[in-house]
Amino acid sequence: MPNKHKNKISQPALLSVILLLVFAGCGPRPQGTTSSQAIEVNREPEQYPVDDVPEFLFQPHKNKYLIKPRAEYFLDGVVLGKEKYVYDRGADIAPYDLAIAWNKLVITKLYKQLKWSQEGRWYLWRYNEDFPFDNAFVARYSANNHIIPANSNLRAALGLVREGDNIGLSGYLVYVRQAEGEEFTWNSSLSREDEGGGSCEVFYVTEIRYNGMSYK
Fold this sequence. Notes:
Elements lengths: L10 H16 L5 E3 L11 E4 L6 E3 L6 E20 L11 E6 L2 H4 L7 E5 L2 E5 L8 H6 L1 E8 L2 H7 L7 E13 L6 E3 L13 E10 L2 E3 L1
Parallel strand pairs: 8-11
Antiparallel strand pairs: 1-12, 2-4, 3-4, 4-5, 4-9, 5-8, 6-7, 9-10, 9-11, 11-12
């Protein structure tokens, strides 16, 4: 009679496998410092021209990119949604999209009346008939940000961010092109008034302020 239990894993061995999987999935913890700077979700994003900042080479993994800063950018707001991308073409350089609301959409707490979702590098919203404003209002005070972390520490810090949290981001809105190999370009919007294709911010982030900490 065949032994029905010959392929079973013993409980200690199974526990070791589970623990190995858990620890392997955690990744490195980001290194940060305590921040006393308030995250002012009620204010407008700040954008400044940077015509004198040169294009630079950036290699997050195997691919090399040339990044041209188009504007210095500071954004404080509430995280409406966070989506991780692994397999699309932009995932190598921008592993996360953050949909963020600020100012009037936050002050009024109207962002809580909308249903938010993200897919395919887009962010979407739905509201009931009694919502007091139109799509243009929502688009004016929220945005989907393709986040390019400037280093591995910032990439790890992005992993901590959760929907509903307050966050402060600093860096540059950029134009990206692949330095060699297949052609790949990505260009940031420079307006908070636009909607539809091309209206997302391609955001090269150099600092994240989150939960009382600053990560660089």
